[in-house]
What does this fold into?
Amino acid sequence: MLFGGHVSGGVKAAPERAEAIGADALQLFVQSPRAWRFPAHDPEVLAGFGDRARGAGIKSVLVHAIYLCNFASPDDEIYGKSVTTLRNTVDAACAIDADGVVFHVGSHLGSGFEAGLERVLPALEQVLERCSKAGKTWLLVENTAGAGDTIGRSVEELAALVDAAGRHPRLGICLDSCHLWASGYDVTDAAALDALLDEVDETIGLDRLRALHVNDSATPLGSNRDRHANMLEGLMGEKLAVFLGNKRLQKLPALLEVPGSDGHGPDAGEVQKLRDLWKSGATGRGGKAVPASKRRRRVGA
It folds into this structure.
């Protein structure tokens, strides 16, 4: 397993900042997360990113699309901005040879799941075409905590999206431990986690699971509230070792999106706690398939 977190600095400074916190994997934004305007990146900076990342000991790079995007929105202006932004994000990610672009589908805002899905698919088709043309970059749908009308709150919804997109060979998923917990999946319970991974394998394929976000949660199981907590400071605590130690999740990048000690994001202390939790979980017994008749349903399902 590779360990790291979301770091600031964009394409100009992310590798060096990841190295400073002891990471061997990183996630970054390629534009300001608070604005639609996409920057005109220096081609030389993009071209040199890979060498800088390798020089910093980084073995996996992910780009996160900005949170303003909503690909299920019935609002044409927001939808258009979202599609343009994701196209630009994927182009930049391909230019730095990133492993994937993580994105949230967004909310259908009351129009219904099926209507939201119909909005999402044309956007995915445009962006996936760009993924196919260059390098190794995948497009990764992230699961949500299940608040409001967001799409992606369950494995079933993620699978429906993958199927509707024709199971494109560059379309994968990223699973967030806090979001799973908030949407009712107890990833601190070995049997429940194995049942979840069985469902992913059967409906999506574990080969499409390309990355993990590892965050503790400040809110209870099944709360549908997305509140990340630092490692060992949330309600999952030491039991997050169960998630990290599962045999089927090894070799994936495990990325923190936590406040850190100063509120500015993952730091060296958080990365070390992540590694320590993995070491304690690696001796566990997770990773066995669970018969369908004995699987535990998620809370609130």
About this structure: The chain has nine helices and ten strands. The first strand starts at residue 2 and ends at 6. The chain has one domain: 2-287. Residues 1 and 250 are 5 Å apart (CA to CA).
